[in-house]
Specification:
single chain; mainly alpha
């Protein structure tokens, strides 16, 4: 670790970076819902909102709980927390609203959202590390 890294981490994050990270997360959650609907031969557009809203609400709560705006691209500090709350909140909201929460769905959703919500942050971290060299 160099002396520059702590200073870079302490800098405030710009509004564009925060909105961009939130936008990526929202798009990935919607894509997850759309791919899930399509894989079950469902009309993707007709039921997309019904499938996506619990996870989008969980995502919003995850952003609040982790204070993601402070380090929106951090894989561990933000990504893992946002992922965990998105999955837990999404599943809870699906259960409360009478939607399915079969064990296989919980596993697939957890793994898919892990790859999506943490994966892009890992890629950003790798690119930043390579650029610093």
């Amino acid at each position: 670790m160099t002396a520059q890294e702590p200073a870079a981490a302490a800098r405030p994050v710009g509004r564009a970076a925060v909105l961009g990270a939130l936008g990526v997360d929202v798009v990935l959650v919607i894509a997850f819902a759309a791919i899930g609907r399509a894989s079950h031969d469902s009309d993707v557009w007709a039921g997309l909102w019904q499938t996506a809203w619990p996870f989008l609400a969980g995502l919003g709560i995850g952003w609040l709980v982790t204070r993601a705006w402070r380090a929106p691209a951090a894989p561990v500090r933000t990504g893992l927390g946002v992922w965990a709350v998105t999955v837990a909140g999404g599943m809870l909201l699906r259960w409360v609203s009478g939607q399915g929460t079969a064990p296989a769905f919980i596993i697939v959703a957890s793994l898919t959202l892990l790859v999506a919500l943490v994966g892009w942050r890992v890629i950003v971290a790798i690119v930043r590390r390579v650029r610093r060299r």
